[in-house]
Specification:
The protein contains 8 helices and 12 strands. The protein is an alpha/beta fold and about 230 residues long.
C-alpha cells in the first residue's frame, strides 16, 4: 500500500512540481492550495500517513492548520515547509508537535529522505511488545497511546510515547542527550535538541500528579529518570 501524503501548499507552480516529484517516488499525494479545504475534512480517521504543510498560506497559516489537525489526530506526523529561515519559526513548529521542517526552496531528495526518516521513526513505535505499563500512579496503554491517572487521561503523540518508553527502559539511570537523539530522532543538531527539551517538559507536566516520578535535567549531559513501578 502506498504512503498517502497530505500536501498543503498555496503556490501553484511549486505545489505541482512537489506533487509530481513525490508521486514519482511512489507516494500517493492529495494536494490542497486552500488550508480551509483541509479543515473541512478533518476527523480522527484522517486518511493520510503524513502531512506536509507550508507555513505561509492565505486564509490560515501552517501553524494554525497543524493545531487543528493535531486536535483531531494527536499522533499525526507533520513536516513544515517554510520560506522563513528563522529560528523562532522552526521552534514554533516543533513546540506545536511537528516532526520536522525543511526550508524552501528545498532539495526534493532531502525532502524525500526526511519523509522516510519520519515514517521509519514512528512506525516501529506503533506496536509495542508490552501493551500495558504501570508507572507509579499512572498506567500507559501503548496500543491506544493513552496515559491514564485517576484524575484523567492524556492522549500521547507517537513521539511522546516513543520517548517515554525509551526513558522507562533506562529507569534510574543517566541517559545522555546524544543517545536519545541518535536512537530516536536519528538527527542530532540544535533544533532536534530543542525539540527534545520540549518533549521532556511535556512529560514532566503529564506526570505532575505523582511527585515520586522525577525527570531531572543534567546540564550538558542528559537526563536522569526515576519512575516508581508497581
Amino acid at each position: 500500500m502506498k504512503t498517502r501524503i497530505l500536501l498543503a501548499e498555496d503556490d501553484a507552480d511549486f505545489g505541482m512540481i512537489l506533487k509530481q516529484y513525490l508521486e514519482l517516488e511512489d507516494f500517493e499525494v492529495e494536494w490542497f492550495q486552500n488550508p480551509l479545504d483541509i479543515v473541512s475534512i478533518l476527523n480522527a480517521d484522517l486518511p493520510f500517513d503524513i502531512g506536509i504543510l507550508d507555513i505561509m498560506m492565505p486564509n490560515m497559516d501552517g501553524f494554525s492548520l497543524a493545531k487543528k489537525i493535531l486536535k483531531e489526530k494527536s499522533d499525526f506526523p507533520l513536516l513544515f515547509l517554510t520560506a522563513k529561515n528563522q529560528k523562532i519559526d522552526r521552534l514554533t513548529g516543533l513546540k506545536i508537535g511537528a516532526d520536522d521542517y525543511i526550508s524552501k526552496p528545498c532539495d526534493p531528495e532531502e525532502l524525500i529522505l526526511r519523509i522516510k526518516n519520519i515514517l521509519k521513526r514512528i512506525q516501529p513505535a506503533i506496536v509495542q511488545q508490552q501493551t500495558k505499563i504501570n508507572i507509579g500512579e499512572y498506567s500507559l496503554d501503548t496500543e491506544k497511546l493513552l496515559l491514564s491517572h485517576p484524575t484523567g487521561n492524556i492522549r500521547l503523540t507517537i513521539r511522546e510515547q516513543q520517548l517515554l518508553i525509551h526513558l522507562l527502559k533506562h529507569n534510574r539511570k543517566t541517559i545522555k542527550r546524544d543517545d536519545i537523539l541518535d536512537n530516536l530522532w536519528e538527527t542530532n543538531d540544535y533544533f532536534t535538541g530543542r525539540s527534545l527539551d520540549v518533549f521532556i517538559s511535556r512529560l514532566r507536566k503529564y506526570f505532575i500528579h505523582d511527585p515520586e516520578i522525577k525527570i531531572q535535567s543534567l546540564r550538558g549531559i542528559g537526563f536522569e529518570i526515576d519512575f516508581p513501578t508497581k
